[in-house]
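Supplementary notes for students who missed Thursday's class. We covered one full example, reproduced here. Read the sequence, then the structure, then the short commentary at the end.
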Amino acid sequence: MKTRSRKILKWTGAVLGIIVLIVGSLGIYIWYNMPRPHGKKPELQTELFKKPEAEFPVNGIYIFKSATELAELIRTKKATSVDITQEFINFIKNNNYKTNAFVWLFENEALEAARKADEKVARGEKLGSLHGVPVCIKEQFWIKGKYSNVNAVQFQSFIAPQNAAIVDAWINEGAIILGTTNIPNMLIDLQTFGDLYPRGNNPYDTSYTCGGSTGGGAAAVASGFCPLALGGDMGGSIRVPSAFCGLYGLKPTENTMESYGTFPDLSSDKTYVTMAVTGPIARTIEDIDLSWKALIKPWYENQKWRSADSGKELGQYKVAYLEEWHYGKHKIPISASLKEKMDKLITNLINNGVSVKNTEPANFEAMRQLHWLQTVYMVFNKEPWIIRQLIKMDYKNATAKTNMDLSEGVERIGDLSKNQYKDIRYRRDTLSEAMEKFFTNFDFLILPVTPGPAIKHNPDHNTITLDDKSILYWDYFNYPMCFNLTGHPALTVPLGLDKNGLPLAIQIVGPLYSEPQLIQFAKLIEHLHEGYSKP
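Structure (token representation):
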């Protein structure tokens, strides 16, 4: 073989060897950084997810009573926390298999806490506002010694080292923790399904989703398993399940409560922590009032709240409302049934002297786009660079399931620039200030949570059919995300059922720190709509 040929072969072999080495090293690097199961998979409480051979005794005395009623019964010694808690536990055991609302039931701990609560009543000690009342907690929030694996194999063995601050807020007011409720994988969906727990179903029709990510909590409250659920909301995760399950759900003003003790663990690096809040889900507005005050109590004095005026009558309110959201060449159509319910509510408001204007706040499209961009920083900032490139490719496909242009956020997955983030926060503050300016002309804004009722289970995020219209999957959930971006409080209000027996709801959005006013207004209009209906 000629010298020249040998040299060519030698260099070709060397180059190929280097390529193989690089590709192999890259493959090993990717494999090393890929999420994988961590620790032992938890053994589920299988009795929660199958029909019992014989039903546990339930008298039905306390099921579907409000937290307000139960607290009063316990306080006045007309009922014991033990009897109430036992009845809820039995009712859950009899029925949880239908919705898979609870994923962990703390039977022994709950009954022991209830016994201590009754002893405290007997001794005549000072009682908290939720004393002896059974509640449920979203699996996202830490309860010391209990699983908090966010329905994901890579966290499947994680056990909380302490209580979340917000869980302690309810416990300090006397609440009895029955257990934790179902969530989607890594909290990243508005349905409830994942790696470890059975799919969460809607109590009104189990072929439909209960929503997400507080889907299990909403299903539990709607089913009568407990009067209150603690939920989290970063893009509608309290309001969507509340709407799908016919409940009240409060997304509070951002940064009004402590965030430690929750997934993701936000206690160390809070550089990109934003938009995620904690709030209650309930069947009555009185229970929202009671549970929010209990939740916010440790931090209430830290904020300048917009106090409710107890003397203000309905005729003194000015309200904006929006039905179909128009952006660019697109609009989000709402169902005929939701439009009918909304029109009835608006008419009733007008008849009661409320000043009402049909108007759309500016910047909705920018709010939705920036919500996604902020989410990218919060969710993916700890992922290795190479993994983010793979995630970026995946989300290019995912964002095709909306008419909204989310390309800026997709591109930013690959390059989470801290310098760019300063500009993003400035843009966010500008949009929040614009929304505050909107509220100088109105007390509240009424608009849909979603364009219609709960959707059928849709794990592939296929196009949704609403009446005779087609809606891309993520366009069904555009409405609530905007107010996570601006930080404004929003309250889901149930409007009854459609002709198919599925709940319908709206959300009422208020100025920053206006939770007391929102709750008061919801109480004033309670008689103007149908509210919660039992499944």
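Commentary. The chain has 15 helices and 17 strands. The chain has one domain: 46-528. If anything here is unclear, bring it to office hours.
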